[in-house]
Amino acid sequence: MLGVLAFAVIPGMQTRVVATAQAAPTLAVAVNASGFQLAAAFAGWLGGRLIDGPGPRSMYPVAAVLTVSGLLIALYSWRRDHRRLAATHSPRQPVTRQ
Question: How much is the average pLDDT of 40-61?
Answer without folding.
Answer: 94
